[in-house]
Amino acid sequence: MEKKENKRKFTSGKLLNLAPVIGMILMAAVFLAIAYMKDVNIPYSFKNILNQSIITMVVATGAVFIYTLGAFDISLGASMCVSALVGAMAYNRTGSLLIMLGVCVGCAVLVSLISSVLASVFNLPVFVTTIAMLSLLNAFALVLIKANGTGDVVQVPANAVRGINTVWFKLIVLILFLAFCIFAFSFMKLGRQEKFVGGNPICAALSGLNASKLSIIGFMMAGLGVGLGAFLTITYAPTLSRNTAGSVGMDVIISIVFGGMPVSGGARSRIYSAAVGSLSMTLLSQIMLMLNFDSGISQMVKAVIFLLVVYVSMLNSRKTILPR
After folding, report:
1. From CA 255, how far away is CA 235, in angstroms rounded?
2. What secondary structure does DSSP assign to 6-42, as a single string?
3. What is the DSSP string of 139-174?
4. Whole-angstrom Cα distance, residue 52 to residue 10?
5. How confident is the model at residue 39 (pLDDT cuts 50, 70, 90)?
6. If we measure between CA atoms, which residue out of 178, 140, 207, 134 comes closest to residue 278?
7. What is the DSSP-derived secondary structure letter of residue 237?
8. Gap between the Cα atoms of 72 and 244, Å rounded
9. What's the mean pLDDT in 260-264?
């Protein structure tokens, strides 16, 4: 009897882990069916879906390292905006795409390090420092645009990035970064330690794990994703303003949750959650667009699904989560 019960729990756990992937496949099937009925150009539509979701996938994949710890960073969008602005200005000075990439990544990692170090030094909750960084970065973006002296935008010549503004280039960047994160998270002790801290920080501390060090590493990984996202943003939309990447912070949270990862982090954290959730969210948006849903209704549908996913996730883990 006990053996059957354990087998049932194991099977249900496996199905729960696969639920986001199954949901994404079903959503893709619904998209294809509606596109076929409405005589939509399917290859062109999939190209648009990838263009819209890849940047969010890259940023969200890096952010998984923060969310696994049970923390979250609401300043990712602002950090990406500042990194893109600084990278664009660097290109306009040097004319080098490699320097632009290096500056985007370096700036984003530096911002992430500042957030994590401030939280560690002053022993503050991470979300408190990221709220402060959000305000500072938004103000800094305005200063950068004003210092650039070209009105309300910072612009990179479209010809300079036309050669890399392709789905294939973006897919290569995504795959390389995803492979690097999977290796660091699943095949190194970093992922196991972060899950331990996210699951029960008290037990982790008593076991000798340095939560501050893991937080700094996690924020560095997130900064790497933000920097790559900033670079891809410039290639996709070379005219940057204060509103660039304005929705990225919320998109990352929704994508990670849509991918089946609990907002509390811990043992059920998965790297693939970011990619699965980002693609599912974009497919859902395209389905509602093809059905001529109003933008307000679309946001309401996303909000309802988001709440349902969070509820189911918390309901499943409530009986097994350890006290913090």
Report:
1. 22
2. HHHHHHHHHHHHHHHHHHHHHHHHHHHHHHHHTT--H
3. HHHHHHHHHHTSTT-EE--HHHHGGG-SHHHHHHHH
4. 36
5. confident
6. 178
7. -
8. 21
9. 79
Q: Give yes or no for a contact between 104 and 84, defined as CB atoms under 8 angstroms apart.
A: yes
Tell me if residue 85 falls in helix, strand or coil: helix
Owner of token pair 């998109």: 251
Separation of alpha carbons 157 and 67, rounded Å = 36
What letter represents residue 228's amino acid? L
Mean of pLDDT over the chain:
84
In the numeric block, the tokens 């500056």 are attached to 103
Q: Hey, where are the domains in the chain?
A: 40-246
Query: How far lies 218's CA from each of 66, 181, 211, in Å?
Result: 5, 11, 10
Six-digit token pair at 235? Answer: 């290639």
178: closest CA among 77, 304, 276, 51?
Answer: 276
Q: Which among 64, 86, 85 is positioned nearest to 73, based on CA atoms? A: 64
What's the CA gap between 228 and 103, in Å, rounded? 10
Q: Check: CB of residue 201 under 8 Å from CB of residue 139.
A: no
pLDDT the model gives residue 59: 94
216 phi and psi angles, rounded to 5 deg = -65, -45
The whole-angstrom separation of Cα 90 and Cα 140 is 16
Contact 24, 279 (CB under 8 A): yes
Q: Do 253 and 273 contact (CB within 8 A), yes or no?
A: no
H helical segments located in the chain: 2-37, 42-67, 76-94, 97-121, 126-148, 158-161, 167-186, 189-199, 201-206, 211-236, 248-258, 272-290, 295-317
> Binning pLDDT at 50, 70 and 90, where does residue 312 land?
low
Dihedral sign for Cα atoms in the order 183, 188, 193, 196: positive
Q: Is 102 exposed, middle or buried (0-12, 13-18, 19+ CB in 10 A)?
A: middle
- 3-state secondary structure at position 128: helix
